[in-house]
Amino acid sequence: TPDIRPLVAGNWKMNGTRASFDQIKAMAEGVKGDLSSKVETLICPPATLLYVATALCDDSPLMIGAQDCHQKQSGAHTGEVSAEMIADCFGTHVIVGHSERRTDHAEHDGLVRAKTDAAHAAELVAIVCIGETGDERQVGKTLDVLKRQLAESLPDSATAENTVIAYEPVWAIGTGLTPTTADVEEAHAFMRQELVSRFGGAGGKMRILYGGSVKPSNARELMGVANVDGALIGGASLKAEDFLAIYRAY
Ligand code: PEP
């Protein structure tokens, strides 16, 4: 979208140990330069690596975020991480509502909205994931699902600065399958229209990322589709070489 600075974001999921700091360092080095003024970059490693990762990116435009947050600020929620804790470790973004969270932890739109609110309260950018399952696509429900997820996962306080949408067809995640560019274009145009009708000018500027089996070989084509303002990348974000190749597709 003209006037929108694209975001290339990586989601490491439950992958990565201290040995992976070498990859973060290589990414931090690789995104220094002219292109970084046009394209933002972000890696979301597991929470165990967050604090050291942000320190490694001190003098790089590469930003570091988390993959989930709890909806509350603190308290008796064993095993959880709050948005404040992410901000305290200098994380700038948090992914919420990823389909793996929706499936593995039964996260519904209302909870995703509460997590988005929590992210905003901690001054984090929320990357709100939505997308249809294979079954929903088969029966022609894709746009209905996107409409509902957008309406119910986003709080009224969402702005182009504090919120990024990630469209991730569930059947395209980790499968090597991608929708056709025509299908991506249709979905993104629909989401843009929904965002503009609810948020006005802010909806026109909100980034809408595509995610699902993005790799160096298909990045240029997918990122060239109208209303695609960047990518959320799983598998291909683990290695600096692949992540940087996707970044350079811009
Ligand atoms: C993801 O987990 O957000 C994702 C898009 O995964 P992959 O790129 O591996 O399909």
From TrEMBL:
Enzymatic reactions: L-erythrulose 1-phosphate = D-erythrulose 4-phosphate; D-glyceraldehyde 3-phosphate = dihydroxyacetone phosphate
Binding site for substrate: N11, W12, K13, G174, S213, G234, G235
Superkingdom assignment: Bacteria
Protein name stated in the entry: Triosephosphate isomerase
Cross-referenced PANTHER family: TRIOSEPHOSPHATE ISOMERASE (PTHR21139:SF42)
HAMAP family per the UniProt record, alphabetical: TIM_B
NCBIfam families the record matches: tim
Cited InterPro entries: Aldolase_TIM, TIM_sf, TrioseP_Isoase_bac/euk, Triosephosphate_isomerase, Triosephosphate_isomerase_AS
Subunit note: Homodimer.
Entry keyword Isomerase: yes
Annotated function: Involved in the gluconeogenesis. Catalyzes stereospecifically the conversion of dihydroxyacetone phosphate (DHAP) to D-glyceraldehyde-3-phosphate (G3P).
A GO term from the CC aspect: cytosol
Recorded name of the encoding gene: tpiA
Keywords annotated in UniProt: Cytoplasm, Gluconeogenesis, Glycolysis, Isomerase
Alphabetical list of PROSITE patterns matching this protein: TIM_1, TIM_2
GO biological process: gluconeogenesis; glyceraldehyde-3-phosphate biosynthetic process; glycerol catabolic process; glycolytic process
EC number: 5.3.1.1
